[in-house]
Amino acid sequence: MNRRITVLGSRSLVIAAVVALSACGGSSGSSTASTDSVPTTDVASDVPVNPLLGTPLEDPTTATRPAMVVKIDNHPGARPQAGINQADIIFEENVEKLTRYAAVFQSLGSDPVGPIRSGRFQDINLLGSLNKPLFVWSGGNSKVSAAIAKSDLTDLSYLKVNTDGGFKRSEDYKAPHNLFAETTKLWTLAPAGSSAPSTQFAYRTVSDANASTSKEAIGLKVSMDGVKAQWDWDATTKEWARTQDGTPVVDTADVALSVPNVIVLEVEYTNSYSPISKTLGSGKAYVFTNGVMYEGTWTRTDRLKPFELKDSAGGVIKLTPGQTFVEVARAGKTAVVAPGMTQDEVKFP
Q1: Which backbone phi and psi does 179 adopt, to 5 degrees?
Q2: Can you tell me the distance from the alpha carbon of 286 to that of 293, in angstroms, rounded to the nearest whole number?
Q3: Which of 41, 103, 270, 327 could form a disulfide with 87 if both were Cys (CB 3.0 to 4.6 A apart)?
Q4: Which residues span the domain enclosing 171?
Q5: pTM summary value
């Protein structure tokens, strides 16, 4: 299989920032910072940052670039996927007895990216806070297509932009799990006036220790529909590494998927063949960052605003600057692996 991809940019500074931050130890009171504020890292507060990472802006040309959401297939026949290590945020959604990724790109891109599959009704609410993002998908049934056309998502489906977006079928995968595109070309199709998304999360600075409401954790297990997702804390890299159905997840370049932050949002799904997540309202949330876990709540009353994450004391939960993976999970489907336990001792709920 051809595993060569072109990565647009570098995360070297991101890694350095994460290492610097994770050196902070101890505990403190809960944060009350707002997610509307500009996140900072271990640099001066006036240094521009990537809006979806909270890390220093390496490439000024991306400062105003709009967010791009690519619906990436997670069927066994679609693995390994291209671009999963370049996405700033990845949402994992339940679909028909399986999951699909909504990978959000802004700081970096990936040529190619995919395999790309269809969108769902739930994408409209889930992605609304990203400021009219470019929505890259293979197309869908007439009802979903009509709903997305009426929404504020910028429709860049295979049926609409095709070769202009670099869409092509790969001979290394079997249909329908073989459609790829190029983020470089897709960004050129952004409507006039498109702009960058707002900050989605609050982030720790070099002076922020873990809040007193946190608990040490070495991993977690999440039962998604048709997928058993496991995350293991690596104290050396200060990231959570993903295993899926017992196999480490890697991209097309054979690079393992690991991130500084994993968020689990417990939501209600409609009881239908094609489930629809309800991402407006409130529910239980788990946040895993810097080797600890916060058990709290998510709240969201407006699809144009980000999720608000609060800990058990009512303080806003701060993430580590860097990539974030969000599990949009059903209630009661998450198990925490605490220190002193092994992953084998903790069963998937």
Answers
A1: -95, 125
A2: 7
A3: 103
A4: 60-187
A5: 0.90
